[in-house]
């Protein structure tokens, strides 16, 4: 029995849940750029599986609607079962993978197609309006809040608690937009300086425009397979070693915003499943969620990859650069590639897959990363979802 099974079965809330027994891998991926459609990502994920898995015995979808129906005829003898549809906002791209993992690891299915897509361009005059309903209708909606000023409050709390400067926050945007220069799906890649970032418009102090990810359309898809299938269809499967999630209170005013405890809890759940005891030594590449520049630093600390308040210093010292001891967001992330919300977390899983297979092209990191972590986040600074992936099959 693998560690994932032991941890899941031991959780007191699960009673007599049947134990997970099978190792699970990611065997194919597809991703399309901003302003693309999920059709291409769906097709590419299946083709990247090397053998054209058929029949495809199960799949998990996020926000997919008619896309799968339009693509079924492109694959001979595809025996599709009704999809599991789910929507978890920003965290969808990682949470959907966790759901598919359990479907395959439990033995219910041998393979799963996970498709995540987002179309924000149709929200007029701006997709911001779609988020107004997440605020409490009695205590918050009368104030007419928006996400920018909510996250500006959190960034301010983070900076003041640990003595972090605005220049240190700006370095994240510089790094990620530069990393995105070689990403084929990048929406806002650029070679910038800290001064360029701080010269951009202030949206809600201390958040500048170039510290904020754009509104985006995009899609990503992956094929998940049980070990016996993965060995047959892929010469280099990347294994899902651990998954974790945590939900904190929606009442964000009742929590200390200086530290994302929900990310820490999700991370340790995933690390325990993966057998990771010292994340800073055992994780070789990280793709934390970066919708705002400060959130990458915030989330790295929650992922136990930096001490509280120390992520900005490690960034300044070059630790998180492509050639650093712990490369962070080599894809370019949401700040550089774009932020199609439901697909953004899966974009990060795709990057881990490419990097650990040595297929990231000009973005390929030096050395041979063997284990990575991807993380997504959602709602009102309250949800963490984490996936640990690696080249070695879990015990």
Summary?
This protein is of the alpha/beta class. It contains 14 helices and 11 strands. The longest helix has 17 residues, at 341-357.
Overview of this protein structure:
The model is unreliable at 1-20, 34-39 and 49-91 (pLDDT under 50). With 395 residues, this protein is α/β, with parallel strands linked by helices. A hairpin with a 2-residue loop joins strand 5 (202-204) and strand 6 (207-208). The protein has a domain at 3-121 and 217-233: Peroxisomal Thiolase, Chain A, domain 1, CATH 3.40.47. Helix 1 (3-10) packs across helix 9 (261-274) and helix 4 crosses helix 14 (341-357). It contains 14 helices and 11 strands. The strands form 2 sheets. The chain has a 9-stranded mixed sheet. Strands 5-6 form a two-stranded antiparallel sheet.
Strand order across the largest sheet: 3-2-4-7-1-8-11-10-9
Q: Which CATH class of the domain at 3-121 and 217-233? A: Alpha Beta
Content of β-strand: 15-25%
**Helix- and strand-based class?**
alpha/beta
Regions with pLDDT < 50 over 5+ consecutive residues? 1-20, 34-39, 49-91
Q: Helical region count?
A: 14
Pattern of helices and strands: HEHEHEHEHHHEEEHEHHEHHHHEE
Shape: globular
User: Helical proportion?
Assistant: 25-40%
Feature tags:
single chain, 395 residues, alpha/beta, Peroxisomal Thiolase, Chain A, domain 1, nine-stranded mixed sheet, two-stranded antiparallel sheet, 14 helices, globular, disordered N terminus
